[in-house]
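Structure ticket #2291
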Amino acid sequence: MLAYIFQRLDSIVSSLFSFEHNELVGKNVTYLLNEINVEKENIMSMINNRAFSYNNDNDIEYFIFQCRSSLKILSDTLQKRKITHCNLDNSIQEVHDALLVCIDEIFTFLETRFSKFISLDEILPDIYLDKCKQELKTKIISIEQTLYRDSLTRLLLERLKTFVNTNIYPFEPTLRAVKYKQELVQRLEEIKRESPSDPFSPIEQLLIYLNFNSKKFIDILTDRLAKEINQHETSTERMAKILYYFKAYKQLYRKPNVKLNPRYHDLDFVINNWFTQEIIYIEKKLRLSVIPLQYEKTKNSNYGTKSHQSIHKVLCMLSIDQLGLILRAADDLRVIHAKSLNEVFKTIVPYLSTPYKEELSSGSMRAKSYSPEERDKQVAIETLERIIIKIKEY
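Resolution: structure written out below.
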């Protein structure tokens, strides 16, 4: 049974601070230290044998969970009793430290040997957490000397230092949180100092890869992109620049199933929304700037021949793709009736124009309605929602 596996170790922990151990002599200390080491090897052997005696993964997972929970209790018990007994005898301190090392090594053995059965949301014992924090602290000091100091690097170093130097967290220090910090630090060590020529710096690429969904990082990233885009004077140039960044952002690698803050939106959700809203805003500015040109063209056409005046076009403030989506949806819902969808486009499209194009192709619009982009779908939905609001006001 599980209690039997840790029975002797539990007994040593329970009796360490009792009266009979208050005056441990050298011989007893040596005996206990040797017994702890032997017991550690026995426990790891028993865990290994027991785990592989089960027939399914669920039983193994539950067994490993019980083992790690028992180790956490033993570790917490040692830590609490040390606090209660402030001035430890050297002999007791030696045995106490050996027990902590023993528990830590069994804990590490479980993580290494049975990692697939361990939940990342497991709360870590203090001894294991402290060990991980100490390892991270050493690496952070080294990283600090090599990385270029900008606002993003300062944010990262500040977050990492806070994690390794504090004992009180606004969240539970789970295995998931520790592993995330470990991978972040490991990859930071691999980043070189050279200035990047890519649209996104090596650190930005790393944080996007690891879904570093910190609100401060999101602000730093979007502020930088906005400054780069707003350096251009015309809306056309800004549109070209933001589409360039959006394409580059979408092509970056992502590691699946990782996230800095499990309680907040994914980084992609927020950044994609930022790009979409910025693109919609620039599109609206472009349309407004084109309207006067369309008006002048219509005005001048009054002096033309009757053949040019025979078709009066309606100027629509949507793109060809967005208009195609709305017409296709209207046909699918039978809001409008025709022999076919092709007939719908052939009948209506000749009477429409956009700020970007006066002569529209019904065939092109119909074809594009079958493979819409997310941005066009969002603009079409937003337009229809505004129409609904306006109708409600009548």
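Closing remark: The radius of gyration is 33 Å.
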